[in-house]
Amino acid sequence: MATLRPSVACPARPTVKTEALHAVNMESIVLFGPPGAGKGTQAQRIMQSTGLPQVSTGDMLRASVAAGTETGMKAKKFMDAGQLVPDDVIIALIRDRIQDADASNGVMFDGFPRTIPQAEALAGITNVSHVIAIEVPDEKIVERICGRYTCGNCGAVYHDTFNPTKTEGTCNSCGSSDFKRRADDNADTVMSRLSAYHEQTSPLADWYDSKGIFHRIDGDRAIDEISTDILIALE
Ligand code: AMP
What we know:
Layout: H1 19-25, E1 27-32, H2 39-50, E2 54-56, H3 57-67, H4 70-80, H5 87-97, E3 108-110, H6 116-123, E4 127-135, H7 138-146, E5 148-151, E6 157-159, E7 179-180, H8 187-201, H9 203-209, E8 214-218, H10 223-234
Parallel strand pairs: 1-3, 1-4, 2-3, 4-8
Antiparallel strand pairs: 5-6, 5-7
Bound molecules: adenosine monophosphate (AMP).
Adenosine monophosphate binds next to helix 3 and helix 4.
């Protein structure tokens, strides 16, 4: 899956750590919002316009769980319960990921940061130029999450009702018929994930707003309209 990025070394990784260099050169974007707001969908759509790679901590963690890494083993019980994975695990994952060669001009974070300590750590790693908040009311989140599925081959994101494949059972992007649903995309876990968002993540809105880089986008609209508004905010 193209968007699933294990925390192991990328073949293009530079032999010398370049964290200091990245800290100077990088200018990154944060996609912010509750679970099911459409951050992953929008990241894929605007990736070509921005040229920045999508860095989804959720995807990285799922890849770590699937690979049975130490990070995956630490994260799994939190993910299964719909709780946030501890900050030290997440920050280590991000510090490692931004050393990859494709991150040298910045990245598009999807699902990170989710706590104030994560945002503080990020501020020491890269410049954030825009935080794009995709806003969707809680009552819409459950139906959005419960109908969600992705292509197991290329990672394209679909929804049973709102964004089905054009031909049933065939991915629009790559033609694969291998689809996946996430274990935590169920009505029980979504309530915990929403609580975690309101209690631990939403305070970040004021934190970024005070820095003048926070852009609110109405996420309860057609996917194309949302993409257009995000690109305008990024101009
Ligand atoms: P997501 O795919 O972004 O919805 O994330 C799935 C799950 O991974 C979340 O419910 C958390 O358990 C965990 N997770 C992903 N990103 C983070 C993060 N930045 N901080 C803490 N936990 C995270």
